[in-house]
Each structure stands twice: as structure tokens, then as C-alpha cells.
């Protein structure tokens, strides 16, 4: 399988509360550097769950690229590097609070040295069975190539509000669509619109409240998985998608796969690392038994 999208090297700062408009001086509770990027989070968790995954991402020729490579050196994860224009690796400053609040500031946002044309995108998908295309302009040619090849296409559009242009092509192309409720006025209407347009499964994550999903058979509500302590929400949505995908690849039905998704997301918030690198198929399956999945009338 192929995951295409961002991997970054981040500075993460823990605060009691996120900054408000206006001048202020704040004392951090702590800070650290580490791997970031939504595609890195998915690939790391998929590999931990026993899925062979190729991560295609843009990297520079700097110290941050070396740190990203080292963090991604894991069994079952193959890194396919795309050279960055100007040689700079993506970097973020993430301001985070204990209750899951986050503000991300892009310090570096690289672009590929060369853009993919349609033929090159099609060639990249030879031998690939599933494509996860994350929000990045260099994913767009693969959206079109996956659709043309009839490959299952999974897209995570994060906090799409349903009206913005940037995520629209991803949302409208996806066979399986993941979105956060953060900016949606009506999550149910958003899911219904995309399923009626041909999406096989659309899922809206609700943080500590679980998730809501819709497919051709109807609605599914996913309760929260038990969490002893929230350490860091960084990458929880990526782990959710990875759990859902890993379970689907194992042939599990939608309800059980959604329980796996909730379990993987819960494991992710219990660690300060990106997503759920310490998860396993066994640990996710065990926790998934505690996730309530129901089908409201």
C-alpha cells in the first residue's frame, strides 16, 4: 500500500492554554522535537499494526531530513523520498495543551523539485493495492491516477469545513473519507452528501466522544475507547485511520473495523510520540472489544 503526503520535523511546546490574540508572555510546561506530519503518523501506525507500507513524502537535504529518516526507520515501512525544492524539509511549531488543543505554525513548507505528470503517477501505483492520499498538492496527481486505475482511495481531510476549496478534490475522490467535526456545522449532512456522491464509507471523528460513520447500509455510532490518561493528541486521527485500514485489510466488517479505529486512536493519545508506534494488532484488537459500536435507527 502507498501513503502519500507530509512528514515533518517538529518543535512541540506544551502549554497550559493556547495563546489568545494580543501580546502575552507564557511559560511552557515542556518542549521537545520529534517526527510529525499526518502521513508519517499513518505510516508509522500501519507498520506497527503489521501492514507493509510505502511512505512517499517530500524531504530536503538538511539535518531535519536526517532526523525524519531515522524516526521512520521501522520494520514494514519503506520510505520513498521526493527531493524538495531548495533542499528544506517541512517543519512545524506545534503549541499543545493537555486537553487536546493545538495550534500548528508552519516554519517550512517544501514543494517537490519536480511535479508528477499523469504517466509518472500511474507508474507509481503499479503493484499498489490501496492508496492513502493525504492533504498536499503533491498528492493530487495520485488522486486522479488511483481513480483511473480503480484502486481503493482513502483520504483524511482533517478539519475540512465542507466549503473550502483546498480539500474538495480529496473529499470528492475518496472511497473512504475521514473528517474531523472541528469545523463542520452539520457533520451528518457532510457525511450524507459524500456517500450519496459515491463514497463507500465516510467517517467523522468526534474526539473524546468517538465517531459517526455512514455507508450504504446506514449510520454507525462509535463510542470512545477507554483511555487511562491523555498524554498527547498529536496524530490521534492518523492512528484512527490506520486502525480502520488495518482492520479492513484483515477482512473485518465495518463495525469491527471502526472499533479498531477507535482503539488505535485511544492508544495514540496515551503516548507523547506521533500516532501509535507502540501499538500492535493484538493490543488494538483487545482494546477494540471495549468500544461500543451501534446502529441508530
Task: Summarize the structure in words.
The chain starts with a strand and ends with a strand. It is globular. It has one domain: UDP-N-acetylmuramoyl-L-alanine:D-glutamate ligase, CATH 3.40.1190.20. Helix 5 links the parallel strand 9 and strand 10. The protein is of the alpha/beta class. 31% of the residues lie in helices and 25% in strands. Helix 1 crosses helix 7. The mean pLDDT is 95. The chain is built from 9 helices and 14 strands. The strands form 2 sheets. A 10-stranded mixed sheet has the order 5-4-1-8-9-10-11-12-13-14, with helices on both faces. A 4-stranded mixed sheet has the order 3-2-6-7.
Helices and strands, with pairings:
Elements: E1 2-4, E2 8-15, E3 30-36, H1 38-48, E4 53-59, H2 63-71, E5 77-83, E6 91-97, E7 102-108, H3 118-124, E8 131-133, H4 140-149, E9 153-156, H5 168-173, E10 176-180, H6 187-196, E11 201-205, E12 211-215, E13 218-222, H7 236-249, H8 254-269, H9 281-288, E14 293-294
Parallel strand pairs: 1-4, 1-8, 2-6, 4-5, 8-9, 9-10, 10-11
Antiparallel strand pairs: 2-3, 6-7, 11-12, 12-13, 13-14
Helix pairs in contact: 1-7, 3-4, 7-8, 8-9
Give a short overview.
The protein is of the alpha/beta class and 297 residues long. Helix content is 31%, strand content 25%. It has nine helices and 14 strands.
Q: How large is the count of helical segments?
A: 9
Number of strands: 14
Largest sheet: 10 strands, mixed
Helices and strands, in N-to-C order? EEEHEHEEEHEHEHEHEEEHHHE
Q: Rough shape?
A: globular
User: If you average the pLDDT, what whole number results?
Assistant: 95
Strand order of the largest sheet: 5-4-1-8-9-10-11-12-13-14
Level-2 CATH architecture: 3-Layer(aba) Sandwich
Low-confidence runs (pLDDT<50, min 5 residues)?
Answer: none
**Which structural class do you get from the secondary structure elements?**
alpha/beta
Strand content: 25-35%
Would you give the CATH topology? UDP-N-acetylmuramoyl-L-alanine:D-glutamate ligase
CATH class: Alpha Beta
Would you identify the CATH H-level superfamily?
Ribokinase
Distance between the termini: 35 Å
Give the helix proportion (percent range): 25-40%
Cα Rg: 18 Å
User: How many domains, as an integer?
Assistant: 1
